[in-house]
Inverse folding.
């Protein structure tokens, strides 16, 4: 009893100390972010914001005025100011699409058609040039739409590629296809994503015929698709290997062809086993879109960093990075919620079908 009591006293003391440290940190953050924060700054005679008030509060309070002044550039980059409503609609479409995907009531084959229609509408809004919309070159895109486009298009196109590669690695009767799939996976996974982005941005144009030029954003998108496809292929292959061989034999005994058995029996069960790994990979690649700053594409992280390079706003990067962290967290949390809903929905017990007597 004496030994147990000593352990409990020590545990309680450590818990109390950690709680006090945590409360002290939370109070200092609340004081910096809310109590002593500067929410707006006056404007000088030239109409430019006067940041002297914010500079006087450095170290004591946050300057959220930088968000009010720079939020449009942070969210939309160099997209023409008068046309940024199109970028705002694109972001809203992505959010709506993710919200529909979170609701189990919409988990039907029609949801695939909705995804295809929304992605096509996104391309029309961002590029323009049709339906009376002014054309905007991809070099002027930036901010949150770029991040969402790279992540959503990249993962949507890499997932079917990953399934084909995973099936190809298991094609024991077709050694050539198996070797090609293995070579692709090992080659892509053996190099960092930055090297692929450099290859797509610098080296790929050298191999194209004269007069053919692929936009830098499309080249970066191709690099993301290839890189994500290789990693997702290994995740899908893990699900295929976890599936008992008896499932395939039972499908063959029912007279199903290889593709019918794969579509109706094998893939649904294999993907169900690896949902957490799939979503974890999705979240990782969503955050990896920030690497495109290496090749001069202004994604959300790059526009946020660029917004603080203006001399009058230098020194207020913490506020901008907190905003970026909140945006990234919101989308990553949404993907995590989709994963939990999928697992919960697929693990629900199904009542057996009882034939009437």
């Amino acid at each position: 009893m004496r030994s147990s009591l000593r352990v409990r006293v020590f545990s309680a003391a450590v818990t109390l100390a950690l709680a006090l440290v945590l409360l002290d940190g939370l109070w200092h953050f609340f004081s910096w972010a809310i109590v002593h924060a500067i929410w707006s700054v006056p404007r000088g005679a030239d109409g430019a914001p006067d940041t002297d008030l914010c500079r006087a509060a450095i170290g004591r309070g946050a300057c959220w005025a930088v968000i009010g002044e720079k939020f449009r550039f942070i969210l939309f980059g160099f997209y023409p100011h008068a046309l940024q409503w199109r970028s705002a609609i694109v972001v809203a479409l992505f959010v709506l699409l993710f919200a529909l995907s979170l609701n189990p009531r919409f988990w039907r084959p029609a949801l695939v058609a909705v995804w295809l229609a929304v992605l096509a509408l996104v391309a029309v809004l961002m590029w323009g040039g049709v339906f009376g919309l002014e054309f905007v070159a991809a070099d002027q895109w930036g901010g949150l739409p770029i991040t969402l486009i790279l992540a959503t298009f990249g993962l949507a196109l890499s997932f079917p590629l990953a399934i084909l590669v995973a099936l190809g690695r298991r094609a024991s009767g077709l050694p050539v296809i198996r070797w090609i799939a293995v070579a692709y996976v090992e080659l892509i996974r053996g190099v960092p994503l930055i090297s692929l982005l450099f290859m797509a941005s610098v080296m790929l144009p050298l191999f194209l015929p004269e007069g053919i030029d692929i936009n830098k954003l499309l080249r970066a998108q191709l690099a993301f698709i290839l890189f994500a496809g290789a990693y997702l292929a290994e995740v899908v292959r893990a699900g295929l290997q976890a599936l008992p061989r008896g499932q395939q034999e039972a499908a063959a005994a029912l007279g199903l062809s290889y593709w019918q058995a794969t579509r109706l029996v094998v893939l649904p069960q294999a993907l169900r086993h690896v949902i957490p790994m799939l979503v974890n990979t999705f979240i990782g690649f969503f955050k990896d879109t920030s690497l495109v700053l290496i090749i001069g594409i202004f994604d959300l992280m790059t526009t946020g960093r660029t917004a603080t390079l203006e001399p009058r706003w230098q020194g207020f990067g913490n506020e901008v990075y907190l905003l970026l962290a909140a945006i990234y967290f919101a989308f990553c949390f949404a993907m995590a919620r989709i994963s939990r809903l999928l697992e919960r929905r697929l693990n629900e017990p199904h009542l057996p079908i009882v034939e009437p007597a």
